[in-house]
Amino acid sequence: MIYQNPARWVVDLPPYTPIEPFEVLSVRLGRRPQDIVKLDANENPYGPSPRARQALAELQFAHIYPDPESRALRQALSDFTGVPAEFLLSGAGADELIDLLLRVMLEPGDRVITCPPTFGMYAFGTRLNGGQLVEVPRRPNFSLDLPALQQAVNDLQPKMLLLASPNNPDGSLLSDQELHALLELPVLVVLDEAYIEFSGLGALGEQGSRISAVPQRDNLVVLRTFSKWAGLAGLRVGYGAFPAWLLPALWRAKQPYNVNVAASAAALASLEDRDYLAGIAASLRQERERLQRELGRLSFLQPYPSCANFVLCRVPDRSARELKETLAAQYGILVRYFDSPGLRDHIRISAGRPQDTNSLLEALAALE
Ligand SMILES: Cc1ncc(COP(=O)(O)O)c(C=O)c1O
Predict the structure, then answer these.
(1) Fewer CB within 10 Å, N or C, the chain?
(2) How much distance in Å is there from the Cα of 95 to the middle of ligand 1?
(3) Domains and CATH numbers, the chain
């Protein structure tokens, strides 16, 4: 029956592996949600800032559709980033903007380059939108293989190159030289800065971000989010800066009410609570450094340096999957394990509050 055929590239997508919701997990582990130490999804354990909580509690217009152009938020983001508002577009998380970009840019079979190991949504979004994924793997220390990337772009003429800096799962940054070399290539470079506020470079709006370079370039997109530094992952709000030629297509294609009123109010209030949130980002950086130092003392973990709110560790002499399972079942501590090539002997641990690090270190010491 002709109408029973979803698009070929959707049928060919790898099976969906759902995230276990917190409530379900809490029942499975037999622990109350507040007794679970959740260090598996790079969330911000401090949650929204006081002003954002207040804005949510006082929300007035939940019965009215939101502004399709998110004018107030984009203006506030312009003040935050220094990028004129006409270059900015907000979305339901950076995830929505990744999908929107791919939907707008790809015709079936168009190529997109990613550099694994990296954030899984790049491969998923490319396949879902009928694109052809070209993977140019990172080197064993997670740095980019620049010559291979240059060759892939020149030989295969991809439409886009999707990169994260800091990269998820290792936390490494893209250097200025690397970015310059990539921007010389005939490809749209999408730089995902979901974790840039933890890099510790400069004020919160800047933090070593490349977002202010976007209006001067034709082939650079920078994506950012409120999910991590502002603790709004559950509300879904992100934004990006895009070159002038791309914006009309994005505006035409986006869902009209993609940023809901609660997300918008919380994001605006977060931008007014920068000093508080800068303090939170500093504490998470401090815990990341403590994790790096302390995990490195254990015989069975080798942490990598990270500029984000997480630390990737190689687990050389035992099963990384079993370690993850033991931490969850015996201690109620969740860390991330990736069942993918190159990462099967690794775990990724998000930076939490000092008490979260204490619980983790105690558990790991008992497993030494
Ligand atoms: C590199 C990277 N980009 C984007 C996201 C998702 O951001 P958002 O919550 O804004 O959709 C994540 C989330 O883990 C991520 O690791």
Answers:
(1) N
(2) 6
(3) 2-47+275-367 (3.90.1150.10), 60-273 (3.40.640.10)
